[in-house]
Amino acid sequence: MDEWRVIRRLAGLGRRAGARVVLGIGDDAAVLSPRGPVVATTDTFVDGVHFRLDLLSAADAGFRATAGAVSDIAAMGAGPLAILAALEVPAGAPDRLPLSVMRGIATAAGRFGFVVAGGNLTSTPGPLGITVTALGESVHRPLTRAGARPGDDVLVTGRPGAAALGLALLRDDPWRARRRHPVLVRAWRRPEPRLAEGLALAALPGVHAAIDVSDGLVQDLGHVLDASGVGARIDADTLPLAPGAVRAAASLGLDAVEAALTGGDDYELLVFAEPGAAAPVPGLTRIGRVTSGRGVVVTRGGRRVSLARRAGWTHR
Fold this sequence. Notes:
By secondary structure, the chain is an alpha+beta fold. The protein has ten helices and 13 strands. β4 (about 80-90), α3 and β5 (about 115-125) form a beta-alpha-beta unit. α2 runs parallel beside α7, α4 packs across α5 (about 175-180) and α4 (about 160-170) crosses α6 (about 180-190). The longest helix has 18 residues, at about 60-75.
């Protein structure tokens, strides 16, 4: 890999400036002029840990890494501003590897309304690493994990569990997964963070808290319950499943509902709001209620489900 040649080509993939990015790629640092408080987050994705290059393209990996960081901005109810991307590229890798990753990052940034304002490129003896810093603007009040109240509805955007099933299908048979379950495969390869929904929710006074579903619905729900000092009851029968999810899960000997409860990488939003307060925002499904106790109770078919409190993804 010729570092400077690659950097020059990478610079051409990012937009140099936007309405609030005064100076972008090409100098020692970017210069931003945001309209309000800046919301910042950083995520690192490593080949073999967070993704597998035998199951998705390098461009898909860049897209997924960007979507993961942007999802944190969405969960805070903030709008798009800028992306900074740092790539750790295995020594001896061809130029096309970082260029493909950056194409995925640039595609995602443009799709979600962000400007690629800078980053870094380095060689490593280890696997490919992608670190994305997403900067957003807090147009309204920020939504946080603390604030859920007893009596609040627990709502979720989209169809949780789709990404987990997409990954499971790819691991089982990549060719068949792409051919028979393209929607589920795309949910994992190219997730869509809920920026528009987060922005709209932050403007509603009856919405009290939010979090994105990155490590599994039950586990991420637990983070809000801990921060808010409350509990919750979840009715698994109300979970909105992706089309074909039940059949796809059954073909692998899995349970689509369990995938929706524990599968990660969805980048949907869990929202906690007074009954009816989030109604102006489309695409939300009520799946439970906040309680005054502690912990989460999950029921299915009227019976309590035996599910680990921290069910979901964790680093080991």
